[in-house]
Amino acid sequence: MSSRRTTTITGSLVAASFSALLIFSGTAGAEAGEPGSDQGGKSVDQAPPGVETTTRLPERISVDNDSEKTSITATVKNEGNKDSGKINLLVVGFDGLTVKGVKGCASIPVNSLPEGSNSGFRCALDNLAAGASKSYAVDATYDLGKAGKICLPVQSGDGSKTYWQQGPVPFGTTNPSPDAPATPLLLGTDNQPVNPGADELPRTGPARELLPLGTTGAVLLAAGAAGLWWSSRRPRRQEG
User: Taking the model in full, what pTM does it have?
Assistant: First the structure.
């Protein structure tokens, strides 16, 4: 009896360990895999007939707790049946998420950034064939004491129209890991700061978003009017 019971318990522990390993391996693969979520995305201005642009972000990223560095893959895809012609993918950071670089893309001048954002890059594509996609490696930092958001608009070549906009969508965690080497963050999750309860730390949720983003930010976050944020930031032509 004792031997049989010991064998049963040992076998259960091995099975449980094996199951946990599979779950962990699946999670690690998801972090390293291709971006696959268009969460927070919406069509804005009407694209040319046959052109249907969308974007993808990874469902999870990992932030180094010491350096605050992270990497994100931003993907733009043409799901239509005709070539896109010239388009721009914009990668813009908000709050605790700062975009430091996007390989192959140009930095957006500070005075041309949308209100409330802290950084941005413009990726120009001469054409995106029907059914094709293009991915960009994004280097960023994330202040885990704040909420952090990213925005991926897809515009016409001249910037006059926004065909698609994903975000600003948050990355965050409700379970900070200050003592771990890195903190995993999930797409679409408001970040809970490492030191919760401090009044000076940014709050998450709609009430917080409206104040720092101002009128333009409110329009940006309002459903059905997401494309107005960028055009409102363009410098007006001087008369006279």
Answer: 0.71
